[in-house]
Amino acid sequence: MEDYSLIYDEINRLKEEKNAVILAHNYQLPEVQDAADFTADSLALSQMAAKTEADIIVFCGVHFMAETASIISPRKKVLLPDLGAGCSLADTIDAGQLREWKREHPGAVVVSYVNTTAEVKAESDYCCTSSNAVKVVSAVPEDKEILFLPDMFLGAYAAKVTGRKIHIWPGECHVHAGIKTEDLKDMKHSHPGAELIVHPECGCTTNLLYQGLNGGKANGNGHIKFLSTGGMIKFARDSEAKEFIIATETGMLHRLRKDNPDKTFYPAKENAVCKYMKMITLEKVLRSLREEIYEVKVPEHIAVRAKRSIDRMLEITA
Ligand code: 13P
Ligand code: SF4
User: Fold this and answer.
1) By the 8 A CB rule, do 134 and 114 touch?
2) Hey, whose CA ends up nearest to atom 4 of ligand 1?
3) Contact 33, 18 (CB under 8 A)
């Protein structure tokens, strides 16, 4: 195992000198997660960005997450250690496409997953994350049409759980979409006693919801848990089970293993790796803090409108 102690020492010194905080998403490299003050899912990271007293936030995640932090905390300096860290899901819809979609459904309420650009959030009524999509959709008045974007698997999940009829944008995350029912079947065959935990962005979600793992009855899937990355951490901690199959980006396993040394975690798919998340290396985190690069700042006229959709979400999930 590589020794990162000198880099950690320097990061800690700079953090104190500059009153900075390091926030990391659960998919970050293990050594980056270990340097963070707070590692969490998208919702908890937004809440943290809202309440931190730090002057600088080094955001170890992808661009839309740093934008969200900047929208919530416009007076703080938000740094993303590598501007190339994008998101293939957020790239599936831009503000112009959303405006066009809204024109086709006048009066509809727009619920946007947090994996969207600030401009798309500015065109949205509500923001949501994987941990609160169901709550947010349920909060929309029954008589309103809903446009859900951009993840079709999360949208289908929210529609199934709430029983609402939702128009869903056909976007997907290439990493999660690649996790198929067959992958889970193979893993379950090898580890029959393991609990199955699935992120609702996964390509297998719809199939599992309606068919279960073995093509059985629609509701024969009670043993499968659909959870955000933060929900996975809580569930694994509280569960009596000793083995778990985790269907999401593999960075998740570091935190699960660290928190639960007496339990075993298997990735549903070994190569479910987000190349964007992995662009943030520890060396780049140090450079980011030292040189205060790369600042992510959302223009005020967009930030003000985008913030409304985030605030509505935070009010619902407070
Ligand atoms: P959560 O951490 O909110 O579950 O999000 C998963 C994700 O894919 C972020 O890009
Ligand atoms: Fe985007 Fe998928 Fe990477 Fe998450 S895992 S940041 S949704 S590309």
Assistant:
1) no
2) 228
3) no
Atom 9 of ligand 1: nearest residue by CA position = 42
225 and 248, same domain (yes or no)? yes
The overall longest dimension of the chain from CA atoms, in Å, is 59
Average pLDDT, the chain: 94
Domain range for 22: 5-86+277-297
Atom of ligand 2 nearest to the CA of 275: 3
Number of domains in the chain: 3
Ligand 1 neighbour 115 (Cβ under 6 A): yes
- Residue 262 carries which side chain, given as an amino acid letter? D
Render pLDDT for 103-162 as a digit per residue (tens, 0 to 9).
Answer: 999 999 999 999 999 999 999 999 999 999 999 999 999 999 999 999 999 999 999 999
- For ligand 1, is residue 181 a contact (CB within 6 Å)? no
Rounded distance from Cα 18 to ligand 2 centre (Å) = 30
Ligand 1 in reach of 119 Cβ (< 6 A): no
What tokens were used for 152?
A: 């079709």
Question: Which amino acids bring their CB within 6 angstroms of ligand 2?
Answer: 62, 87-89, 115, 173, 175-176, 249, 274, 276-277
pTM: 0.95
- 151 with 179, same domain? no
For residues 180 and 262, membership in a common domain is answered with: yes
CATH code at position 140:
3.40.50.10800
DSSP characters for 125-184?
SEEE-TTTHHHHHHHS-TTS-EEEESBHHHHHHHHHHH---EEE--B--HHHHT--HHHH
In this structure, the residue with its CA closest to atom 8 of ligand 1 is 201
What pLDDT, in 10s, does the model give residues 254-281? 999 999 999 999 999 999 999 999 999 9
Are residues 211 and 154 located together in one domain of the fold?
A: no
